[in-house]
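Recap from last week: sequence in, structure out.
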Amino acid sequence: MRRAGLGEGAPPPGHYGYTNSGYSSFEEENDRLTESLRTKVTAIKSLSIEIGHEVKHQNKMLAEMDSEFDSTSGFLSQTMGRLKVLSRGSQARLLAYMLLFSLFVFFVVYWILRLR
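Predicted structure tokens:
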């Protein structure tokens, strides 16, 4: 009894049943496709690294903007607090100042017109 692949019809070692011409063409095509895939993977890798750098830069800018908005928010809340204090204060003093200023402007204008 003969075992399969161990007789006269067995391919020489290292050929794995392929003919010389067909095997080399498949191997060349596989090498070409492998190289094409390698260049695509390299391009995707460099693109993803650039995206990572851009994301880090954008996160840094957002953190800076957040701190600036926080400081602006504090400044605005202080201003609003001062306006509330001013609005709760006595309006009589403010009216007196406005009346005195108006009288002063009136007398200055009267004096300038009288000198002409």
